[in-house]
Amino acid sequence: MYDLIIIGAGPAGLSAAIYAQRALLDTLVLEQEAVGGQVILTSEVDNYPGVPNADGFSLVEAMRTQAVELGATIEMNVVERLEIAEDGSFAVTIPGKVLQAKTVILAGGATPRKGGFVGETEFAGRGVSYCATCDGMFYRGKRVFVIGGGNSAAEEALFLTRFAAQVTMVVRKDHLRAQAAVGAQLEANPKVDIRFLTSITKVAGELGITEVTFRDNVTGEEHAETFEPNVGVFVFVGRVPASELVKGLVEFDEAGYAIAAEDMSTSTPGLFVAGDVRQKPLRQIVTAASDGAIAATSVSAYLGHPVSS
Hints:
The radius of gyration is 21 Å and the shape is elongated. The chain has helices spanning 11-22, 56-69, 132-135, 151-160, 180-188, 285-303; strands at 2-7, 27-31, 73-76, 81-84, 90-94, 97-106, 110-112, 128-129, 143-147, 166-170, 192-195, 198-204, 209-216, 222-235, 239-241, 271-273. It is α/β, with parallel strands linked by helices. Helix content is 22%, strand content 28%. 42% of the residues are buried. The mean pLDDT is 92. The protein contains 6 helices and 16 strands. Strands 1, 2, 3, 4, 5, 6 and 16 form a 7-stranded mixed beta sheet that branches.
């Protein structure tokens, strides 16, 4: 019987592990893909306080090392089910085994929904981005394209005008789904233009993106355009939270994000969530780490363990 099982070893999960170890909790961290999560795909991180000009892998590796040195156990394994046991504890099913824990922190994160164009995977992190706040400044004075027509895409496009020379929104429909007030700001901004009924089908280039292929969604015709290096393509067509494990155990918003209180607790006693899997206004490394720290501290209080300062 573990005191705590943390599902997910991204910044939220690793931060939770660090704080759990400081509280002397018997803790196991389970990760199904790669320690660090989506962050390891980020080539440059320049907005994490105190660690300028870091790369994603090095940053989370430092977090992992810190957690392990404090005594955390990180195991690569797929969590198949999460259920409440008869005694109120949690049954965590992994292949061939059922683990038990007094508490659980779900820190599985959220995955950006892909744009589905050729070259998207190849240029991820070096031309294709899913976070304007993270990568916008790398395109200072450059040409960028924003895929999407909802509120997130519109707001990120406006944010990118602070850096880019020109921001082109590529919208597959004939209208924006963003709120009217945001749409009015886009129309009023001289740096923004919108291509309706258009999709990006391919990006190409040598060291960076210099060619973008567009499709007319009415005629189906495609044409390629060449640009000065390096073009940025920002994809904002939604995110998929890894919240399926807690279906029926917590409340969700309309997008599938878990709803939690300020202490990261959910409607199920002993079950906490942290990081991008939960409903919140900003999804960044620093907020994920903060969520993890809060969640582990809340677990410690829930179990009656003191937390060292």
